[in-house]
Amino acid sequence: MNSDSLGHRKDYQIDGTNELEETTCVTAPVVSNTLGVNVLPDPTPQVEEKMSRFSAYEYRTQPGFDQNKFEGANQAIPMKTLVIHCFDPRAAEIPQKVAEYFGDEVYPGENILDDTGNRVGSTRTLFVETNAGGRAASALLSVAAMDYIFSVQNVVVVHHSFCGTTTYTPELLIEKFRDRHHADISTLFDRESVAIMDYEKSIRYDVGLLRSSPAVPKHVRLYGFFFEINSGKLVEVVRDVPAQIAA
């Protein structure tokens, strides 16, 4: 990264011809809105012009695509299950373990290419959302978005052994963050989702949170599991299957 005489950052990016092109990015000042939150001002013409080059990669700009008539992408990607788990690399096997547990999932699957080599679909049926601790509260937007795009049928929460979120309490994390960064995060998060204090309680709490959230369709089946990272054992703790589906 270089800077010109005005202090503007110069980046290098790949253009449509696969050649490096030098662009100038204007660094915008940070301002505060009426709520006291720091925000960036409206994009300058230079920035807006550079951002528009990626519009060709948006579905809404494709010829013949009408977002008001979009009925989902299940025909291209038959996604039906969303697994929420921790981003700890020691727990990376969780999606595969869940797929094996259910028996009718395809994971990781394969990309489907058209005649020109473009990726137009996938055989995968199970998608993954990762966050600290694998908490449901951090995944609600993903659930709503995945239902819109793929008509999700199952949402699975998995908490794993020796998770980093068992090294602190909610109060300790908030206190240490304030001491280190001079910022108060005490009201930013659902307090029960900040740390895992008891595995079975946290799993049941997250499944309950999903069921009570308007972001989760009422027909969706919910499951909660515990994963032991050393043995690779996956244990079902709770399931919440709507009566009309169970019947």
Summarize the main sheet. 5 strands, mixed
- The residue fraction in helices comes out at 10-25%
C-alpha-based Rg, rounded: 22 Å
How much of the polypeptide forms β-strand, as a percent range? 15-25%
Structural class: alpha/beta
**Total domain units:** 2
Order of helices and strands: EEEEEHEHEEEHEHHEEH
Q: Which fold name is given in CATH as the topology of the largest domain?
A: Beta-carbonic Anhydrase, Chain A
> Unreliable runs, pLDDT <50, ≥5 residues?
1-39
The rounded distance between the terminal residues' Cα atoms is 61 Å
What is the 3D form? Answer: globular
Q: Can you identify the CATH class of the largest domain?
A: Alpha Beta
CATH architecture of the largest domain: 3-Layer(aba) Sandwich
Please count the helical segments: 6
Mean pLDDT: 85
Biggest sheet: strand arrangement: 9-6-10-11-12
The CATH superfamily name of the largest domain is: Carbonic anhydrase
